[in-house]
């Protein structure tokens, strides 16, 4: 129900009830303004685009807690990253701002400010994504009509140079790693993430089938707490082992109890990335002339070596545990350049062969010198049919030709 009443002071008071039955009203000096406002609100209620003005006065910070609590699909590390972006970039600017006060222009100015401060393009995009997620929840909760963080201009992504070791460099790194030799080989030839390597147990290796089963991951959250869970894509996978690596594992890993960690710390606990780097990985990287190399770059190395060995994109996807082959291509498309060169070479060969066949068809033999050789009959008993023109002569046609 909606109505407009004239008050004793001469103003007009339009009022309406929302979908929850709550009454709302405003005051206008002119009836035409009151009617226009009432029509707009009534249409919004009927079309489902109505926004409660009081609910829109909720601050971004109040809704941020609700938004983050609802991200039940996030892994602990991702949740920690979102919380860090909220604390560092989003809440200092928007925490006390009412949802209805957030404008598209203000969001764009904020992103430009972050870029001007020297924040990387990827970090600016993460900040925008978090704010857009909160405002998107406000739209779904009917607190806002539209999301003002959508459609803003974003800085380009600064693609970090991907470092891939050669097979010779990988072997040298493993030799220089001391106690981490086999771990380096598994990372560099199987493409495991560090969280997957640290969670491996002896029972996960099947040396007869030359496979390692990746079904767990352990990650470090907030610099101290270890969280166990599934791999990044929430799926288990079977990764092939080269024969030489089977021999290495047989000597060093699988001769221990099945439930033990395959690559523990010296104290028998989970091998943490930062501890391994300070203990032997960083020194080994410097020894081979690759300072600053990270364990994750051995995953890129594994992809590079597999592609050079002739693996197709689907096999690389399964080995690395990517969600799709498209994701593998997006990330490692440049490593498939040799395949493109091979396609070009094959097209060259095909064209050369086709040109040769065309030349054979068009080529004519020079006429032989001297008088032509007489025709020989294949079967003397078969009489020749005399032909003139393009058809054999019939008796009637022969008489007509003789008369002429």
TrEMBL record:
Record's signal peptide: none
InterPro entries, per the entry: CB, DNA_brk_join_enz, Integrase-like_cat_sf, Integrase_catalytic, Integrase_recombinase_N, Integrase_SAM-like_N, Tyrosine_recombinase_XerCD
Disordered, as annotated region: 1-24, 358-380
Limits of the Tyr recombinase domain: 160-345
UniProt GO BP: DNA integration; DNA recombination
Pro residues compositional bias, start-end: 365-374
Gene3D superfamilies in the cross-refs: 1.10.150.130, Intergrase catalytic core (1.10.443.10)
Annotated GO MF terms: DNA binding
SUPFAM superfamilies the UniProt entry points to: DNA breaking-rejoining enzymes (SSF56349)
Keyword terms of this UniProt record: DNA integration, DNA recombination, DNA-binding
Biased composition regions of type Basic and acidic residues, renumbered to the chain: 1-23
Highest taxon in the source lineage: Bacteria
DNA-binding listed as a keyword: yes
KW DNA-binding (keyword) present: yes
Ranges for domain Core-binding (CB): 58-139
Family named by the database record: Belongs to the 'phage' integrase family.
Name of the protein in question: Site-specific recombinase XerD
